[in-house]
Automatic annotation (TrEMBL), chains A, B:
Swiss-Prot/TrEMBL keywords: DNA-binding, Transcription, Transcription regulation
Protein name per its UniProtKB record: Trehalose operon repressor
Superkingdom, taxonomy of origin: Bacteria
PROSITE patterns, alphabetized: HTH_GNTR
Gene: treR
Phylogenetic lineage: Bacteria, Bacillati, Bacillota, Bacilli, Bacillales
InterPro entries: Bact_HTH_transcr_reg, Chorismate_lyase_/UTRA_dom_sf, TreR, Tscrpt_reg_HTH_GntR, UTRA, WH-like_DNA-bd_sf, WH_DNA-bd_sf
Species name: Laceyella sacchari (Thermoactinomyces thalpophilus)
Domain HTH gntR-type: 3-71
NCBIfam families listed in its UniProt record: trehalos_R_Bsub
DNA sequence: AAGTGGTCTAGACCACCTG
DNA sequence: AGGTGGTCTAGACCACTTG
């Protein structure tokens, strides 16, 4: 919506690919043609195509053209900051989120360390259980620094990210995720339908704002049989 | 080494960051200054900085400048096509690779499906065990389409990717990784020091060449306590 | 030879941050 | 006001593919 030409071209082409008017293996118009179509310069078109390429939508071949990839066979997001809500929407599953606890207060030493703040600075703590097809699959523990706008149970049941995107003045910039596999804890056992699996997949996520401050730490604890992580990586 | 200006600027800055002459939180010269330093245009400098940003080395703030991130705290690659050899070199561990079997022949139905080829087309099969600090931790099963240059045990003990990078005329373009957690198989038990862990982390990797053909399928099976996957993701 | 994407230039205007 | 990064333009030359 911004007056950003290359982003609007990008979104337009993404739509065409997802709607099917640009099917897999089909060839996009050449960069020069697109520049004329969108009344812009070729470099600007190239910026849009670069984004499509980075996100796994197209593939460019020198001398030949740009071609649509058939990636979304698994209907899954390319690795990135994708919220649970977006994710389940794509997978067309019945998914619900139950808020176990929501409070603001002093962090534990562990959380203070993870967020790299002093123990006297208050944090928001949100603990949620994600249910998919009637089974409690994911235990989400989120910790936010207290300068974010106040959270409510309704927001946490919906999408915290949507809320923050709309209310935060400074945007989200980048995140680091660490995936490990650990022994199940009593807390996991208490909240999840763990089916005797002794281990759990843990995704630790450190989210930074545009000014580089770390503002969120989260642990997403997944029952191993339902865990799935996808990574799309381009070379160089 | 190519006559590629922005790549050489990128590599130069990566070196400065990794050597420490550009420490974390320090500010890079402005884009205009870099353009003068490298005797090139600002857009070319920006291309290099964009790469640094994508790979988690720097962080740009409008109106202020570009700053070095302190990411490599965990000394781990940003998600991508990183080989075992590069990986262990960074972690400074004693790591060895043992080739269990190396052969060329008809694929199993499963492998033919994964590689999306007919069962009559031969494939290379490489099965390897990765040992770290004396423990057999990872079972790697690699399948290559037969048009690649011939493999030897020596190559497989070193780095298949380095070999392919040097010998393949058409380069590697992109890869999709799928991470799941599964029950341990008899094959895993036979080759790994599995320590009674009943589950195993499986990374399935589909690697494509620049002409978009899928040329490799691999399964990397990790003992859960040693498994670690890192993902760096930028927003938008 | 013509078309394609890959790289590069030398400008330009803007929004943002700092003095 | 001056510096910064973000976007955009209208050219240019190159390497690659195809007819």
């Amino acid at each position: 919506m911004l007056d950003n030409i290359y982003l609007s071209i990008y979104h337009d082409l993404v739509n065409q690919i997802e709607q099917g008017s640009l099917p897999p293996d089909s060839k996009l118009p050449s960069e020069n043609e697109l520049a004329v179509q969108y009344s812009t310069s070729r470099e600007t078109v190239r910026k849009a195509l670069h984004l499509l390429s980075q996100h796994g939508y197209i593939h460019k071949i020198k001398g030949k053209g740009s071609f649509v990839l058939h990636v979304n066979k698994f209907n899954f997001p390319v690795s990135g900051l994708v919220s649970f809500k977006e994710l389940t929407k794509r997978m067309r599953k019945k998914a619900t989120t139950k808020v176990i606890s929501l409070k603001r207060g002093r962090p534990s030493p562990y959380i203070a360390t993870q967020l790299n703040i002093s123990r006297t600075e208050e944090v928001w703590e949100v603990i949620r259980v994600r249910e998919i097809d009637g089974e409690k699959i994911i235990l989400d523990k989120d910790y936010f620094r207290s300068f974010i706008p106040p959270l409510t149970v309704e927001i946490c049941e919906d999408s915290i990210y949507e809320y923050l995107d709309q209310t935060l003045t400074v945007g989200i910039s980048f995140a680091k995720k660490f995936i490990t596999i650990e022994s199940i804890t009593e807390e996991d056992q208490a909240w999840l339908d763990h089916k005797e699996y002794p281990m759990i997949a843990v995704v630790r996520n450190y989210v930074h704002l545009e000014d580089n401050t770390l503002f969120q730490y989260s642990e997403s604890r997944h029952r191993p049989d339902k865990f799935r992580f996808v990574d799309f990586a381009r070379r160089a």
